[in-house]
Amino acid sequence: MPAAAPPAEPEPAPPVVPGYVLETLLGRGGSGEVWRALPRRGGEAVAVKVLVAGEPERQAREAVMLGALDHPHLVRLIEVVHQPRRGGVARVALVLELLAGGSLAALLARRGRLRPGEVVTAIAPVAAALAHAHGAGVVHGDLSPGNIVFTAEGRPVLTDLGVARVLGETAAAEVTPPYVDPTVARGGAPGPASDVFGVAAAAFHALTGIAPWNAATPADTLAVAAGGHLPDLAELAPDAPAALVAVIHRGLAADPHDRGSAAAFALDLRHACRPEPVRLPADGVPDAELGRTDRGPRTELTHQVPGRRARPAPVIAGAPGRGAQVRDRLRGGARVVTPRSAVLVCALALLVAVGWVGIRWAGGDAAGVDAGTVSAAVGSDLPQAPPTTPAPPTGAAVPVADRQEAPTSVQGWRAVVTELYDRRAAAFVAGSPAGLADVYAEGSPLRAADEEHARSLAAAGEALRGFAPTVVAVTAAAAEPGRVEMDLVDRWAGYEVVAAADPEGPAVRSVPGRAEATVRMVLMRTPAGWRIQSAQRLG
């Protein structure tokens, strides 16, 4: 009589995470589990990453890092939840956006390889996200197709920043051998150049169908990587555009100094080949890569990162940004801020409080603005400062924002601000950061933020379509020589993000509009005319 089959192991019971109902296990790795979950208070499904192993300090660092790095192609952290445990240290759970399109690794396992235009669409935005992180003094350290994950609409998102590190930090490095930088495989420290290698290696695999390094075991693969002898990309992808092959080849250069920056890689990749939408299966890519904590065989390399300080970042005055809001939402205890994670916060201080591509004014108190100084002046005369430059020749049409005289009514100020809004929108639609010089006063933190977001948009090969904020009214204004502070009401309709190479083509994604809101704004008179110094959303 045949022996009875052993009973199947029961599915693991989902952990308890305050505020969420965990439904389906998406993935399990060495540091924890990822579950599909629903908020108890209602809302869209999310991914909850429950950290069950590792040092609490590292977990805190990951939470701070995810909350502070704000980019459309970096996984979005919704909140951090502490799980109280009787008699033990509370666990940390990260609530992340649910990326329903599956990973690039799963897509390649299903399709083999991508078309050249799809490679550009999948990889260039990720390189732009890396450039954003590098600008904040943070490296990823272990980039592979497993942590490039798509939304349901096909937008690529870089995940698994738990292995990332502040430049100058001492730590062990976990790597995925088929995509590791040979310098790191030989014991070197991960840095921006190794991230460029990683994103180029992902592009190599997407274009050819095979990873750069291959062997029977992870240890053998690591040894192959340390040797640094790459397969011939041109032979493996004979039909690929030569310019695309050249960009990927440069990113895989043996000398890290020859690889260029992540921003340059993103831009050059975009210009090397016309992008096209990534074809995801109609039923999605069913795998465990939706925010999973482990991506297959990994080898831990222990080494000492050279003892250099993280490069200082400029501190920009303004309201708390997204990172501060995330840290303030920690549940079940105080903020997760340790001495090492505090260094990270300093390194990320350049992230100012504006939304993606700088199209939302900050909330909270703006530096240099006294809420009590705005006077209700609708219909009243405002002091007029004497002009500081000669008047233009008779008949010359000088835009209202470029005039030296101060308008004497709120209607006049509305015309000035409307012109500045139009210029700002045109700069983003045209992908021209230089155009923002005609919007902001020199030294305005908003200008620096807008320029950074415009560069990130360009590096991702994307543009805006239909972005046109409207100034509804100026409700109050108070002027003094060379400066005016006003309250205004603005709004904008929904708009679309499109491929820069095909601005009339299908939208990559849609961005909802915003209803009317009150904004407090300060304009300064400059030699070129009136320019925005600061702006904050009220209420």
From TrEMBL:
Gene3D superfamilies: Phosphorylase Kinase, domain 1, Transferase(Phosphotransferase) domain 1
Binding-site positions, ATP: K49
Region of interest (Disordered), residue spans: 278-324
Biased composition (Basic and acidic residues): 289-301
Domain Protein kinase: 20-274
Key words, A-Z: ATP-binding, Nucleotide-binding
GO MF assignments: ATP binding; protein serine/threonine kinase activity
Domain of life: Bacteria
Leader peptide range in chain numbering: none
One Pfam entry name: Pkinase
Protein name per Swiss-Prot or TrEMBL: Protein kinase domain-containing protein
Organism per entry: uncultured Blastococcus sp
